[in-house]
Design brief:
This protein is mostly helical. Helix content is 73%, strand content 0%. α1 runs antiparallel to α2 and α6 runs antiparallel to α7. The longest helix is centred in the middle third of the chain and has 35 residues. The chain starts with a helix and ends with a helix.
C-alpha cells in the first residue's frame, strides 16, 4: 500500500477515535475506542514516516519506530502533523550551502602564529625595528615586541633592547619582561651545571667534569653572545667561558671547545689567538667549512684582504649549504 493511502488510513483512524469521544456511549467505551483508533493511526503513520526518514536515521529499527510512535501517541493528531511536516520540510528544503569556497581576509599587521610554522622568521630584524621606530600605534609596537618570539634569540634580543627605549611604559615593560625571561633561563642552566660540576668533582668523575665544563663554557658564551650581558658583566661571562674552555683543553684536544675558544677570542679582539684556535680545531676534526667564515673575519681584522677572497672563494665553491647571511658578503668580495 502506498504512502498516500497509508496516510489517509491513519487520518481516518485518528478521526474515528476522536469522533468516538463525542458519541453517547459510556466513558469506558469512548476511551477504549479512542485509544484503539489512536494506536492504530500512530502505528500506520509511523510506517509512512519511517519510509520518509533518511537511511542513516532508520536504524536501529526498534528505536526509530518507537520514537515515531511515542511522539504521536501522546500528542494525538498534532504529533502526527508535526512529525510529518518536519520531515517533509527537511527533505524538500535542505540546508543551503554557500558556493563560495573561501573568504578573503586582509593580511594582519603582525599575525599571531605558531612559532614552528617555518624555519625562517615571519618578520626580519630590520622590519620589526622599523615598526618600533616609526609606528605611532602602541598596539602595533606591542605586537612587534611579541613577534620577536618567532625570531632567533640573538635577533630577538637586539629588538627587545631597542624596545626598552620606547616612549610607552607598556612596550618597555613587555620588552623588559621578555629579556628577563631569557636571562633567567640561561642563568638557571648555569646554576644547574655548576651544581652538577661540583658533584662530579666530589665524586672524582673526570668524564663528567669535562662534560659539565663544556656545558658551562657554552652557557656563559650564550649569555654574552645573545647580548643579554653588557659592559663589565659581558666581559665577566666571556672570561668565564674562556676559563672553562681552557680547562677542557688542558685535559683533551676537543674540536668543539677549540672552535668556541676561537669565537671567544674574536669577541675579545684577539684575532691571532682566534686564528690559532680555529686552525687547531680543524686539525682535531672540525669541518673546515665551519671555520671559514671566522677565518675570513680574522683576515679582515688583520687587513689581509687578498686572503679574504681566497677563503670566501673556497666557501662558495663548497657543495654544502651555507648560512643565508653570507651570500651578500660573498657576492661583494668576489665581484669587486
Amino acid at each position: 500500500m502506498g504512502k498516500v493511502w497509508l496516510s489517509i488510513l491513519a487520518l481516518i483512524l485518528e478521526i474515528a477515535g476522536i469522533a468516538a469521544l463525542l458519541t453517547d456511549i459510556n466513558s469506558v467505551g469512548k476511551l477504549s475506542i479512542f485509544l484503539l483508533g489512536n494506536t492504530l493511526a500512530c502505528m500506520t503513520f509511523s510506517v509512512v514516516l519511517w519510509q520518509l526518514m533518511p537511511q542513516r536515521y532508520r536504524y536501529p529499527l526498534k528505536q526509530s519506530a518507537f520514537f515515531l510512535f511515542i511522539i504521536q501517541f501522546f500528542i494525538p493528531l498534532i504529533g502526527s502533523i508535526g512529525l510529518g511536516t518536519g520531515l517533509i520540510l527537511a527533505l524538500h528544503l535542505p540546508r543551503s550551502r554557500s558556493r563560495q569556497l573561501w573568504n578573503e581576509t586582509d593580511d594582519p599587521a603582525l599575525p599571531y602564529r605558531p612559532s614552528e610554522v617555518s624555519s625562517q622568521p615571519l618578520y626580519s630584524q630590520g622590519g620589526l625595528a622599523q615598526v618600533l621606530h616609526e609606528a605611532g600605534s602602541i598596539e602595533k609596537r606591542i605586537r612587534a615586541v611579541m613577534a620577536t618570539k618567532q625570531m632567533k634569540n640573538r635577533d630577538a634580543v637586539a629588538i627587545l633592547q631597542q624596545a626598552l627605549k620606547d616612549t610607552s611604559d607598556d612596550v618597555r615593560l613587555l620588552a623588559y619582561a621578555m629579556l628577563d625571561e631569557k636571562e633567567k633561563i640561561i642563568t638557571e642552566r648555569i646554576k644547574q651545571t655548576q651544581r652538577a660540576l661540583t658533584q662530579a668533582k666530589t665524586d672524582d668523575r673526570q668524564n663528567a667534569i669535562l662534560i659539565q665544563q663544556k656545558l658551562l663554557a657554552g652557557h656563559y658564551w650564550e649569555m654574552a653572545y645573545l647580548g643579554l650581558a653588557q659592559g663589565g658583566v659581558r666581559t665577566h661571562f666571556l672570561t668565564q667561558a674562556r676559563n672553562h674552555c681552557e680547562a677542557v683543553l688542558a685535559q683533551t684536544e676537543d674540536a668543539a671547545s677549540l672552535r668556541l675558544l676561537g669565537r671567544i677570542n674574536l669577541e675579545t679582539h684577539q684575532p691571532e689567538a682566534a686564528k690559532k684556535a680555529f686552525s687547531e680545531a680543524i686539525e682535531q676534526g672540525l669541518p673546515r667549512l665551519q671555520a671559514l667564515p671566522y677565518l675570513a673575519e680574522i683576515a679582515w681584522l688583520q687587513g689581509d684582504f687578498y686572503h679574504i677572497r681566497e677563503l670566501l672563494t673556497e666557501l662558495s665553491s663548497n657543495s654544502q649549504p651555507i648560512h643565508p647571511t653570507l651570500y651578500g658578503v660573498i657576492d661583494y668580495w668576489l665581484q669587486t
